[in-house]
Design brief:
7 helices; binds magnesium ion; 220 residues; binds adenosine-5'-diphosphate
């Protein structure tokens, strides 16, 4: 569950902010976040993950009040409870596909278990990447790179998957495939799925659409 109550956020230069009196997303819900460029979609997902902290109000994410966490606890929370997928893939060029998928496990400071490796390989197989496990990202198509990023996002079985314009660098057909894979993988894991998208056709797949323009705070 993600719950925003009386939240006010503004950037330090006071040129943009969001005011969110009440927003609830229940466990397992699949939500599309839409709005024009610059309307605050990325800002909203950063508030959900604790990457930005509001000036007022309360945000509860996975039963955790984010303002109660110190930096270290927040980092652990993000690593364990949230999976991230980005428009630019954000894969590490010097790690092969297997090690890119396993990155959140490594950063979580847990010893690399055979179970984690098995899980990474099973995920790669489920999205058709098993032949690429020893390859490096630059040898892969953009659609394949985003599939690696999806495996990386769910390898720790997070409670929430946040995908910020995951199809922004993909053509129409590949975008559809990637959204299907993301949706299937996340549904199997039971996680909540939050996808920022410009593509209104893709929003049909989701339980609900949130237009972030509704939350824009007024600035002069
Ligand atoms: P979207 O993802 O919908 O395109 P963003 O959430 O990235 O929009 O940005 C919303 C607004 O906040 C934009 O006007 C942007 O310029 C501004 N903004 C984003 N990041 C910062 C920042 N670090 N400092 C000040 N303003 C910012
Ligand atoms: Mg954005």
């Amino acid at each position: 569950m993600i719950q925003f109550t009386n939240v006010e956020f503004t950037y330090p230069d006071h040129t943009f902010g969001l005011t969110i009196q009440n927003l609830s997303i229940i466990d397992g819900e699949r939500v599309a976040i839409v709005g024009p460029s610059g309307s605050g979609k990325t800002t909203l997902v950063k508030l959900m993950s604790g990457a930005l902290i509001q000036q007022r109000g309360t945000i509860i994410s996975c039963d955790t009040k984010l303002t109660n966490l110190n930096d270290r606890a927040l980092r652990q929370f993000r690593l364990k409870r949230i999976g991230f997928v980005f428009q630019e893939f954000a894969l590490l060029d010097y790690l092969n596909v297997r090690d890119n998928i396993l990155l959140p496990c490594r950063l979580g400071a847990e010893p690399m278990s055979p179970e984690a490796r098995d899980r990474a390989e099973a995920l790669a197989r489920s999205v058709g990447l098993h032949r690429h496990l020893d390859r490096y990202p630059q040898k892969l198509s953009f659609g394949e790179r985003q599939r690696v990023a999806i495996c990386r996002a769910i390898v720790t079985s997070p409670s929430i998957v946040l995908a910020d314009e995951p199809t922004g660098n993909l053509d129409g057909t590949t975008a559809d495939e990637v959204i299907s894979i993301l949706d299937d993988c996340v549904q199997q894991s039971g996680a909540t799925l939050i996808v920022v998208t410009h593509n209104l056709e893709l929003t049909n797949r989701f339980d609900r659409t949130i237009d972030v323009s509704e939350f824009a705070a007024a600035y002069t």
